[in-house]
Amino acid sequence: xxxxxxxxxxxxxxxxxxxxxxxxxxxxxxxxxxxxxxxxxxxxxxxxxxxxxxxxxxxxxxxxxxxxxxxxxxxxxxxxxxxxxxxxxxxxxxxxxx
Amino acid sequence: xxxxxxxxxxxxxxxxxxxxxxxxxxxxxxxxxxxxxxxxxxxxxxxxxxxxxxxxxxxxxxxxxxxxxxxxxxxxxxxxxxxxxxxxxxxxxxxxxxxxxxxxxxxxxxxxxxxxxxxxxxxxxxxxxxxxxxxxxxxxxxxxxxx
Lengths: 98, 147
Hints:
Chain A is an all-alpha fold. Chain A contains 5 helices and no strands.
């Protein structure tokens, strides 16, 4: 059917909203043009989370980059006092005019 | 005056045809939820309204071009202003809520460059019946017409 089911990388406590923002964020992040569009949307002063995005941008770029091993990424984030789940929660939503 | 909220099978067909025409490259999606039930009704030529309106459709896609169309149609978008409902891109993990083997029971249809897969009516009802909210029960009862 042309669709690949991926394993939930955020563990059993993840919400579908968080998973969706991670999954589609990564899909668009992989294409430089779409990545620029996301960044423009998230850094716009009209986006209510633009300040949070700026605050967490380095971590967010780390999780949105193509991940070869989410387990390793999660371990790296935990060593910094975070986790893949908590950082994914900081991925801003897309809404309004994108 | 555009129809507000999602209620009629033709609304789903019109939306999918539009996306199929707008795609510049092949893409695919799996449609779940009430939108999937309305799709089945449309294939049967039914024009019976859902007993309670839906405010969104829930596609799952791995196609970047389809995801971009979805992001342009999210809550608060021009799409929503025009249609009265929006697109809520769902993660692939949501498909695991359906019974094993749903892919073999699903139907597919091509809309231009867009391939749409819709799980069977009983599979679409599994998550709704697990949730069991009044609206889900009403939709499940409505879906009996599709069997």
